[in-house]
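TA notes, week 10

Several of you asked for a full example with nothing omitted. So below is the full record: structure tokens for the whole chain, then the designed sequence directly under it. When grading your own attempts, check the secondary structure regions first.
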């Protein structure tokens, strides 16, 4: 199992604050069946250059690699890139793609997206050869039109759902309905820390297994594997 969205790198953002906490998060992921965790610290283009971010990310990754136990999930590097007007024209954006893939995890604003924003999402793949993954699409459902997800999915935009979409009672039914409609997401825990935002990806998969036809979990896992 792959966890596509985590804040497990220490000292990078509002996620893990220490290497010890990162290791405990990795242990939790391991016990939930995760073999690979994609580290996706926040990247804000208005705060630092891509080069500075990559340097910082590599430094903390090296420390974590050295300290993490052998049985812990493999960590691969990525970023959660915050959308800004004109992002489709930003040079070197490919450097923020998830290691070994052409996937870019994109965080969109929490308001109704304009037509320009939606065209920038599709522009990124047309111009830069990037496959856009919309981070935690479940958080934007209320603000966007119902047809948008089907449109994006059909246009090869990848949707990433957080585990909470499946574990929360208030959204579970909707999350399963999307699966039954044929919209398969990449699932991520979006874990930040042990106390307030621990990983719950194992529970999300258990719920999917219980509530869908046989084969859905396998379909999700196969879809995830196709990118790595
Ligand atoms: Fe996140």
């Amino acid at each position: 199992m792959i966890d596509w969205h985590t804040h497990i790198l220490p000292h990078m953002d509002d996620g893990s604050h220490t290497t010890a906490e990162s290791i405990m998060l990795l242990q939790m992921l391991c016990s939930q069946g995760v073999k690979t965790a994609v580290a996706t610290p926040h990247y804000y283009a208005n705060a630092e250059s891509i080069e500075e971010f990559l340097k910082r990310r590599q430094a903390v990754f090296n420390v974590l690699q050295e300290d993490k136990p052998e049985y812990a999930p493999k960590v691969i590097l990525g970023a959660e890139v915050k959308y800004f007007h004109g992002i489709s024209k930003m040079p070197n954006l490919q450097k923020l793609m998830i290691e070994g893939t052409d996937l870019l995890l994109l965080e969109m604003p929490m308001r109704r997206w304009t037509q320009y924003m939606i065209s920038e999402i599709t522009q990124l793949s047309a111009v830069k050869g990037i496959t856009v993954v919309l981070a935690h699409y479940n958080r934007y459902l209320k603000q966007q039109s119902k047809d948008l997800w089907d449109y994006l999915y059909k246009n090869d935009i990848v949707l990433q759902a957080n585990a909470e979409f499946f574990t929360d009672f208030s959204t579970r039914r909707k999350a399963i309905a999307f699966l039954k409609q044929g919209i398969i997401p990449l699932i991520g825990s979006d874990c930040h820390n042990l106390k307030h935002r621990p990983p719950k990806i194992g529970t999300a998969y258990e719920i999917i297994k219980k509530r869908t036809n046989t084969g859905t979990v396998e379909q999700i896992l196969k879809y995830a594997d196709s990118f790595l």
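Residues 50-67 form the longest helix (18 residues). Use that as a sanity check on your answer.
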